[in-house]
Design a protein that fits this description.
globular; mainly alpha; 76% helix; two-stranded antiparallel ribbon; 2 strands
């Protein structure tokens, strides 16, 4: 059980980067961007291909981020310059990226144009390089001995992965918080709230939309690159349903932790991604469910996350009405008592 939750937390922290990208488009920019399903694989395919060809994992990851940024910008250009519906522009780019991703992974083979997957079992990744440094510190032994003292029989083999992804995700969270408070970030937020108003201040909303979509998909591709290195493979179908996972993370986090400030909201998105993966891991441990039911479980989690806040808000509204009615009744009683004395 502990290992399942621990693994879910590792994956959840990585997927949280993708969820932050989804948050930028769906919440900040108010743009239903379905490019995510394609750009996630673009990041994974680019990183895996470059690692397979012998490039350093850090360089491969940076190039993957740039590839995701370009994909997002293309979606923005289709919408702003081509005047295509936001939903349709994302779908078109997602479809185009399927073939592009096959081409990217196909560049590792001599006799094929496209390739559906790339294994990285014997390749150096960001995690393996960090683990080589981490293992010499002796922290794993100390932490595992501590867990065994609390009765955990099967501690994780290494804590290096969760430490490095936690540092990366927290750093990205603070960068996103800072960016959304800059002049450009405020302009992007204003564009999502009211395009007509921000145009009245002579702001170029087309450029802001393109930039926002580019940054969002750069984060999504970054998450894809990390997942490919974490899972030791890249597959052309690994991005299916990523937009739903991202939305589930955003909705769950916002429902539990609220959205009063930007810093609180980005924290909620990250926490929502981790909670989602833990719920999924626990659900798959149920006897009558297996890995093939992941999409069904995801859909059910999203439905519950969407419906539950409505019931909670209605319940709170009813309690407020009852409280106001009771206060009015008390006031009338006091007034009637005063009139009787008079």
């Amino acid at each position: 059980m502990f290992l399942a939750i621990f693994g879910a937390m590792e994956q959840g922290i990585i997927y949280a980067i993708m969820a932050l990208g989804v948050y930028l488009t769906f919440r900040v920019l108010d743009f239903p961007d379905l490019t995510v399903d394609g750009s996630f694989v673009t990041g994974a395919a680019t990183a895996a291909t470059m690692i397979m060809l012998g490039y350093h994992p850090i360089l491969a990851t940076l190039v993957a981020i740039v590839a995701g940024f370009i994909a997002g910008c293309m979606t923005g250009i289709l919408h702003t310059k081509g005047k295509i519906n936001p939903l349709l522009s994302g779908i078109l780019m997602m479809i185009a990226l399927y073939s592009i991703n096959l081409r990217i992974m196909g560049s590792t083979a001599e006799n094929t144009i496209g390739r559906p997957n790339i294994p990285l079992l014997n390749s150096e990744t960001l995690f393996s390089k960090f683990q080589a440094i981490w293992s010499n510190l002796g922290i794993d032994t100390a932490l595992n001995n501590l867990l065994k003292g609390f009765g955990v029989q099967q501690p994780p083999s290494t804590w290096s992965t969760i430490i490095v992804v936690l540092i990366i995700t927290i750093l990205i969270k603070f960068i996103v918080d800072w960016f959304l408070k800059t002049e450009i970030g405020l302009a992007i937020r204003a564009t999502g709230d009211n395009k007509r108003m921000i145009r009245s201040f002579s702001a170029n909303t087309d450029t802001l939309i393109i930039l926002g979509l580019g940054l969002s998909n750069a984060l999504v591709a970054f998450s894809g690159a990390l997942i490919a290195q974490y899972s030791k493979f890249s597959d052309v179908s690994m991005g299916i349903g990523m937009i739903v996972i991202g939305l589930a993370s955003v909705i769950i986090g916002e429902a539990i932790f609220g959205t009063k400030t930007i810093m609180r909201t980005t924290f909620a998105v990250i926490a929502g991604a981790i909670i989602y993966r833990i719920i999924l891991a626990l659900a798959l441990r149920v006897d009558f469910l297996d890995s093939g039911d992941m999409k069904l479980i995801t859909a059910i989690i999203v439905i519950i996350a969407l419906i539950l806040p409505q019931f909670i808000n209605k319940s709170k509204a009813r309690k407020r009405k009852v409280k106001r009615a009771a206060e009015k009744s008390d006031v009338k009683t006091v007034e009637q008592g005063g009139n009787g004395l008079a």
